[in-house]
Write a structure and sequence with these properties.
- It is built from no helices and 10 strands.
- By secondary structure, it is mainly β.
- The chain has 2 domains: 65 residues, SH3 type barrels (Roll), CATH 2.30.30; 28 residues, no CATH class.
- The strands form 3 sheets. The protein has a 6-stranded antiparallel sheet with strand order 6-3-2-1-7-8, with no helix packed on it. The protein has a two-stranded antiparallel ribbon with strand order 4-5.
- The mean pLDDT is 88.
- This is Large ribosomal subunit protein uL24.
- InterPro entries: KOW, Rib_uL2_dom2, Ribosomal_uL24, Ribosomal_uL24_C, Ribosomal_uL24_CS, Ribosomal_uL24_KOW, Translation_prot_SH3-like_sf.
- One of its GO terms (biological process) is translation.
- Keywords: Ribonucleoprotein, Ribosomal protein, RNA-binding, rRNA-binding.
Amino acid sequence: MEKKITLPKHKFHIQTGDTVLVIGGNAKGQRGVVKEVIVEKDRARVEGVAMITKHMKPTASNPQGSLVKTEGSIHISNLKLVDPATGEPTRTGRKLNENGKLQRYSKKTGNLIPDSYRKQ
């Protein structure tokens, strides 16, 4: 019997609800809010960035069919977190806060990135 290998849970520098700057690819220079993080593929969907067109088949409710524009995914390495205090893109790290929990911080300013920064 084979053993099932479980990989550790990923910890990314961005989370759902963060404002990010795209630093690579066709959408370079654009800013947006992260709608979804796809952990299995190391990718994220950013609102209004990397738009793709999907062809929808005709259905009973939509007999004509249609073209739908939606956000494509971008690799996590091409995204940089925007510091909520300064509005500048920054690298992030993790350090203990006063409650003894790990919290993200801006490596540029040293300020903790508050959890309230993320839209729940």
